[in-house]
Design goal:
single chain, 300 residues, alpha/beta, Rossmann fold, six-stranded mixed beta sheet, four-stranded antiparallel beta sheet, 9 helices, 36% helix, globular
């Protein structure tokens, strides 16, 4: 039996105007090639022939998959932890800036090993988390005493339960994309905010590295968003994008990994140059960043 999903319509906007662009390698686990297709209607991309929800788990089973393992093995993962320490403070300030101080309830979807949820809890927020991976949940429980829900919890949330819902590099992994977006709209308070951070394939570093761009991360990344495709997805689910924010460290981190994939070695100099170019574009417009944070609010 074939457990792969072959799309005949764009999974983001349901258009038939789709075609293959190139194939990318899974550098983390299988080293298999997966085709990446583009939709000419919404300008989104997606990974074709991905394993279905029941069979994707094997592609996360690697100690190098840092959001689940918390590993500090290797220079890139050491850099990741240093950057995370810095960005956690930035994320907390950002959430408090846009979230207000009246109803400090937050749901972190794809909460991983709990570092962000713990940071928000320390700042006085009432935190709930959803995490599919048992290993990541165990680390969150032992390290921070945080007990996250399984994804089924999303179907049990009462209407208007949360002021903030956050997904930090998670939406690109979700098989039930439209089901999740529907739940998010129902679960937010009327003035609540949905914060989605995802890689941006229209960035300079993505264009430079093409199929070697690390943020394609096939087959774990099912969708590859552009700002235009995110706006299309938001509109389908009665959201509007209130603002765009950049994630400046991502340009360098992704360039480091991409350079390793392309040339077989870690070149700080080459990756640094690509990161600087990408960051320069980001300063001109947050929509040009390697990863973009989208702040969505409900349409009235």
């Amino acid at each position: 039996m074939n457990h792969n999903i072959h799309y005949t319509l764009c999974p983001i906007c349901n258009s038939t105007n789709i075609e293959p662009i190139f194939s990318a390698e899974d550098y983390t686990v299988s080293h298999a090639l997966f085709p990446i297709w583009q939709c000419h209607q919404c300008k989104g991309r997606f990974t074709q022939d991905v394993p279905d929800f029941l069979n994707i788990g094997a592609y996360y089973q690697s100690e190098n998959y840092i959001s689940h393992s918390d590993t500090k093995k290797g220079i890139i993962n050491v850099l990741y932890h240093w950057v995370r320490f810095v960005t956690l403070k930035r994320k907390r300030k950002f959430i408090e800036q846009i979230g207000g101080s009246i109803n400090k309830t937050i749901l972190d979807v794809g909460a991983g090993t709990g570092a962000f949820a713990h940071t928000m809890q320390q700042s006085g927020w009432q935190v709930s988390g959803v995490e599919a991976d048992a290993g990541a949940r165990n680390i969150a429980a032992s390290k921070y005493n945080l007990h996250f829900h399984l994804p089924e919890y999303l179907n049990e949330i009462k209407q208007a339960s949360f002021q903030m819902i956050t997904l930090w590099h998670v939406l690109e992994h979700v098989h039930d994309l439209h089901g999740y977006m529907k739940v998010f709209n129902q679960s937010l308070t009327p003035n609540g905010k949905l914060v989605i951070a995802v890689p941006n394939y229209t960035s300079f570093d993505a264009a430079f590295y093409q199929q070697y761009w690390a943020a394609y991360d096939v087959p774990r990344h099912l969708y590859h968003f552009s700002p235009e495709s995110m706006a299309a997805l938001a509109a389908q689910h009665h959201f509007k994008i209130q603002q765009y924010r950049s994630m400046p460290f991502d340009s360098f981190y992704v360039a480091l990994l991409s350079e390793q994939y392309k040339s077989g070695k870690t070149s700080l100099l080459k990756a640094g140059w690509v990161g600087i170019r990408s960051t320069f574009n980001m300063w001109q417009n947050a929509k040009n960043c390697s990863s973009v944070i989208y702040v969505l609010e409900k349409k009235n």
